[in-house]
Amino acid sequence: MIPDPSPSSRPDQPPQPPPPADEQARLALEKKRERYVWYYLAYFLFGIHIVAFVMIYAVLSTK
Known about the structure:
Layout: H1 21-61
């Protein structure tokens, strides 16, 4: 079975116009903010593990 060609390679359809500048700016800002959310999540999870290891060490080292 032959795959359907991509929209840019179809000769019977005109190419899609680029989105407006304000839409591009909004999408760029949304992508940037989403990246920051992933960074915050990673730091949060890393911090939780550090706290857990310190607590485990504290519990195991007491007598």
